[in-house]
Write a structure and sequence with these properties.
Blueprint lengths: L5 H14 L13 H11 L4 H8 L4 E2 H7 L5 H13 L3 E6 L5 E6 L1 H34 L1
Antiparallel strand pairs: 1-3, 2-3
Helix pairs in contact: 3-6
C-alpha cells in the first residue's frame, strides 16, 4: 500500500483540524491553544516556577539563586533565566562595578504569575504526603 501524496495528506490534516471542537483553552480546537501550550511549557518546566517563587522576595544575584534552588546546575540556571527574560517574566540588571554585579528580578508581567505559582507551591506542600501514599499504593498494586 502506498502512502497518500503530500497534497492529500495536507487535505486530510486540514479536514481533521476543521473537525476539532473548541472545548476551552486546553483543547486543540481553541484558537490560542498553541500559544497557551508554549507558555505553559515555559512556566511549567522543572525550574521556572521555583526561580519565579524565589524572586518573589526581591531581586537576587545569580549565586544566591543557584544556592537556594536546590539541584539546579549553573548551565540550567543560566538557560532558565535567559528563557524567563526572553518571555518578559524576569529582568536582568547589570551594575558597572568591580567585581561585576548582576541581579535578577520579577517583571510586572512576572509578578502576575506569583500568586498562581505560590498557590501551586502551597498546594504541593500541603498534599505531598497524600500524593506519596498514592504513589506507594499504586506501585505496591503492580
Amino acid at each position: 500500500m502506498t502512502e497518500p501524496a503530500t497534497a492529500e495528506r495536507g487535505a486530510i490534516s486540514a479536514a481533521a483540524s476543521a473537525m476539532l471542537e473548541d472545548r476551552g483553552p486546553c483543547s486543540a480546537g481553541h484558537d490560542g491553544s498553541s500559544t497557551i501550550k508554549d507558555v505553559l511549557s515555559r512556566i511549567g518546566d522543572k525550574w521556572s516556577l521555583l526561580i519565579i517563587g524565589m524572586l518573589d522576595a526581591g531581586p537576587q544575584r545569580f549565586t544566591a539563586l543557584q544556592r537556594n534552588v536546590t539541584g539546579i546546575s549553573h548551565r540550567m540556571l543560566t538557560h532558565t533565566l535567559r528563557s524567563l527574560q526572553r518571555d518578559g517574566l524576569v529582568s536582568r540588571t547589570s551594575y558597572p562595578e568591580i567585581p561585576p554585579r548582576v541581579e535578577y528580578a520579577v517583571t510586572p508581567l512576572g509578578r502576575t504569575l506569583i500568586a498562581p505559582v505560590l498557590g501551586l507551591v502551597h498546594w504541593a506542600d500541603a498534599n505531598h504526603d497524600e500524593i506519596q501514599r498514592s504513589r506507594e499504593a499504586f506501585d505496591d498494586a503492580r
